[in-house]
Amino acid sequence: MEFSGLTFVLTDDCNFRCSYCYQKRGRTRLDPEAAKRAFDLFQPFLGPECSVNFYGGEPLLAAGTMVDLVRHIGSRAAGRKTKITYSVATNGSLLTGGLLDFLESHRFTVLLSFDGYAQDEARRRGSFGPTVAVLRELLSRPRVKLETNSVFTPATVGRLYPSMRLIVETG
């Protein structure tokens, strides 16, 4: 049996309270040592290409665990033929310079949760401007692959077209 992907849910905590979120909120965090042991357990069964994905709540609330695990994987994968790629799904609010540098140096795919012009209403008031700034920063980093995930509800669907236009025009 071969595995082509491993997903680590780093925390069920989140710093946003999106109106449509189905995620049960809590304060649980993945133990860093347990994450390393889990990777070590699965490593012999990894296929020639494997994605390691980080989710949450907001996984960057446990960014230290993610960084430690990526470094651990790098030390264990040296000399192996498995190509490992990384992704993180985030609301972007915790993406700072040092963390952005780390994501870029490890060629992460960042799945940015961004609801465009519905952002302040559906996600967190005041988050639209900072998220647009993060979107632009991610686009300026050539070794980061960016994807966006947007949710529009019956209450916000009227903002779909201008939001998608913003995303496309931003790059």
Question: Which terms summarize this structure?
Answer:
single chain, 171 residues, alpha/beta, 5-stranded parallel β-sheet, 6 helices, 22% strand
Architecture overview:
Strands 1-2-3-4-5 form a five-stranded parallel beta sheet, covered by helices on one side. By secondary structure, it is of the alpha/beta class. The longest helix is centred in the middle third of the chain and has 15 residues, at 63-77. Strand 2, helix 2 and strand 3 form a beta-alpha-beta unit. It has helices at residues 32-42, 63-77, 97-105, 119-122, 128-139, 160-170; strands spanning 3-11, 46-56, 83-90, 109-113, 145-149. The mean pLDDT is 93. It contains six helices and five strands. The protein is globular.
Helices, strands, pairings?
Elements: E1 3-11, H1 32-42, E2 46-56, H2 63-77, E3 83-90, H3 97-105, E4 109-113, H4 119-122, H5 128-139, E5 145-149, H6 160-170
Parallel strand pairs: 1-2, 2-3, 3-4, 4-5
Helix pairs in contact: 1-2
> What gyration radius follows from the Cα positions, in whole Å?
17 Å
Low-confidence stretches: none
Name the average pLDDT: 93
How would you describe the shape?
globular
Query: What percent strand?
Result: 15-25%
How do the helices and strands follow one another from N- to C-terminus? EHEHEHEHHEH
Largest sheet at a glance?
A: 5 strands, parallel
Q: Give the end-to-end Cα distance, rounded to a whole number of Å.
A: 40 Å
